[in-house]
Amino acid sequence: MRVCDTAAMTIVLIATLLYLAATGVLVHALTRGTPVAGGAWAIPAVLAVIVHGIDHLLAWRLLGGPDLHFFSALSLAGLGMAGVTLLFGLRRGIAALGVVVFPLAALSLLVYAAAGHGGSEGLDWRLQLHAGFALLAYATLAIAALLALMLRAQERALRRREFHRWLRALPPLTELETLLFRTITVGFVLLTATLLTGVLFVHDFFAQHLIHKSVLSVLSWLVFGALLFGRWRYGWRGPSAVRWTLAAMVLLVLAFFGSKFVLELVLQRPR
Length: 271
Known about the structure:
With 271 residues, the chain is mainly α. Helices cover 77% and strands 0% of the residues. The longest helix is centred in the middle third of the chain and has 35 residues, at 125-159. The radius of gyration is 19 Å and the shape is flat. The model has no long low-confidence stretch (mean pLDDT 84).
């Protein structure tokens, strides 16, 4: 179990409160239907991401190396999603994502603080690079999945002529769809880098019980790749894009967190 002294617990609580403060500002803006492409939400969000990162750095320093076990990886994925949301919110006007992402990031950090770490992984720089690509790919594509859900909700509301206040806080449908595919493209590149570094730097796939994880990751890569090709060649959009995005994300969740959950928490096999 992770032993949280007063300072460490204070850091976790500060990050949580900052995430919730940013969420509160965004919820207030959305319920009023006002634009949320910057403003008061950004300051607590930036500080929350910084403090969240500091918590992991201090834990790694204490352990003498990176901790990438299940709960730590979950918290790092939440941190990555919060960072991507912050970047998109400041530059693309999709801050509404923070209503979902910031509470998830806070929850992942609290769970990590309560459940603890599994000790230092002892990874060399090559495996750390592979793990870094994996976490960035997951965070970016998870944001793409949320954008797909947002696109679906916006399309459905417009089709039914339900002009809710929160619709006025979102960008136009075409701009949101463009951002979705740009996000998928970035995530696809990161996922490709993850698979390539895995082939180059990870050995003994059978001994490390990584075959199922690799197969699911490749399947997710193929689905995302097919979606991007379909967009380029056939102009896929709307409900088709949403379905393909969510299907690929399900495969990626199973590949990354599903495999880690089974191996580390169910079977209790060291990684």
